[in-house]
């Protein structure tokens, strides 16, 4: 299932724990209540993850989709927590009245299309894995996650977060955790965990840009734009262009992401700061992609994909390991003296990651 041999089950959410922790301490129960319930639910799900994954690995193979077509199913949890819920839309069904269902269905398709058309990968596992999603999960659930088998979306509390199917890059972000699960299987702690999160941000951003037909210059490079409620002082969850600038709000606090190694955050929380320090490799990708111009999925994205899926990236890779492999991949695919090689090498230099 992974190119590196072992398997480390990971429960991945798009909203970082440090954001929910701050909300949970708010004096207003309308803000703290949903955040506390989300934290409790996430903790329970994280605890179950290892057992369910081990059983899933031992089960019979799923039916495969046609090699060039997705096989999507969307379920409705009805604000409960039993998964997957009631089936509300299959691959052959027409759009219904529920916009959340339709957005989830479209987001699954957009993710499948980017990986297939740009990189020749057939679904998350490379072998036509059916794509399942559950919407309307729990009450006021402030998160979206990939549980190793499917996508799950909360509706948000309406005060801080809106419907988690609104940003297509959130859908792409979480599904890319599945791609990482089936390929490099990056350990979800410290720098390898930050690389895991960065991979999801990179391809989530590329899925949005591919869907909109945007060039690197035209893109906003925001992750989760449209997710924050109107009263929140912020524009997204994260910014790849300017890490640390996504939000600055009285309730949420200030975006803590660093853009360079000078501001690397050492912490034991959030699995060693995986959602925080991912800003550094995120910014490196932005710098490489904008230096090259054009459609970011064609050159910078191709290099990052080659490294993620090539089999040489260690599960416990540090930033320097990943950076070295991207430079190597740029050279091998585009040539030693090409713009790609220079752009990638310079991007890592600009964020302070040294290449041996």
SS content category: alpha+beta
Distance between the termini: 30 Å
Coarse shape:
globular
Give me the strand/helix succession.
EHHEEHEEEHHEEEEHHHHH
Beta-strand segment tally = 10
Biggest sheet character = 6 strands, mixed
Labels describing this entry:
about 350 residues; alpha+beta; 6-stranded mixed sheet; two-stranded antiparallel sheet; 10 strands; globular; disordered N terminus
Provide a brief overview of the structure.
The chain has 356 residues and is of the alpha+beta class. It is built from ten helices and ten strands. A hairpin with a 4-residue loop joins strand 5 (144-146) and strand 6.
Question: How would you describe this protein?
Answer:
It is a single chain. Strand 9 and strand 10 form a beta hairpin. The strands form three sheets. The chain has a six-stranded mixed beta sheet with strand order 1-5-6-4-2-3, covered by helices on one side. A two-stranded antiparallel sheet has the order 7-8. A two-stranded antiparallel ribbon has the order 9-10. The chain contains ten helices and ten strands. Helices cover 43% and strands 9% of the residues. Helix 5 (190-212) runs parallel beside helix 7 and helix 9 packs antiparallel against helix 10. With 356 residues, the chain is α+β, with helices and mostly antiparallel strands. It starts with 11 loop residues before the first strand and ends in a 6-residue tail after the last helix. It has helices at residues 17-24, 29-58, 99-119, 168-182, 190-212, 270-273, 279-292, 300-309, 319-334, 339-350; strands spanning 12-13, 72-76, 86-90, 131-135, 144-146, 151-153, 222-223, 238-239, 248-249, 253-254.
């Amino acid at each position: 299932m992974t190119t590196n041999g072992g398997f480390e089950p990971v429960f991945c959410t798009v909203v970082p724990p440090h954001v929910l922790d701050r909300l949970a301490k708010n004096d207003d129960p309308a803000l703290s209540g949903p955040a506390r319930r989300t934290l409790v639910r996430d903790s329970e799900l994280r605890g179950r993850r290892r057992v369910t994954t081990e059983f899933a690995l031992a089960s019979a193979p799923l039916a495969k989709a046609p090699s060039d077509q997705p096989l999507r199913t969307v379920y409705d949890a009805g604000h409960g927590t039993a998964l997957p819920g009631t089936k509300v839309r299959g691959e052959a069904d027409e759009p219904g009245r529920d916009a959340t269902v339709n957005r989830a269905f479209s987001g699954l398709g957009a993710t499948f299309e980017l990986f297939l058309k740009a990189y020749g990968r057939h679904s998350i596992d490379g072998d036509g894995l059916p794509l399942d999603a559950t919407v309307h999960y729990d009450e006021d659930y402030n998160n979206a996650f990939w549980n190793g088998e499917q996508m799950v979306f909360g509706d948000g509390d309406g005060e801080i977060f809106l419907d988690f199917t609104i940003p297509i890059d959130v859908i792409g972000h979480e599904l890319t955790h599945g791609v990482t699960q089936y390929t490099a299987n990056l350990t979800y702690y410290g720098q390898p965990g930050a690389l895991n999160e960065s991979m999801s941000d990179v391809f989530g951003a590329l899925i949005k840009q591919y869907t909109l037909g945007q060039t690197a210059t035209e893109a906003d490079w925001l992750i989760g734009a449209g997710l924050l409620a109107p009263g929140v002082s912020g524009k997204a969850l994260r910014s790849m262009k300017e890490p640390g600038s996504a939000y600055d709000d009285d309730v949420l606090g200030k975006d803590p992401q660093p853009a360079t190694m000078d501001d690397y955050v050492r912490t034991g929380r959030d699995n060693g700061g995986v959602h925080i320090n991912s800003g550094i490799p995120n910014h490196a990708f932005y710098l490489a992609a904008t230096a090259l111009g054009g459609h970011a999925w064609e050159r910078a994205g191709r290099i990052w994909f080659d490294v993620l899926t090539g089999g040489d990236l260690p599960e416990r890779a540090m930033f320097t390991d990943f950076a070295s492999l991207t430079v190597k991949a740029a050279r091998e695919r585009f040539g030693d003296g090409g713009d790609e090689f220079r752009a990638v090498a310079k991007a890592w230099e600009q964020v302070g990651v040294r290449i041996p």
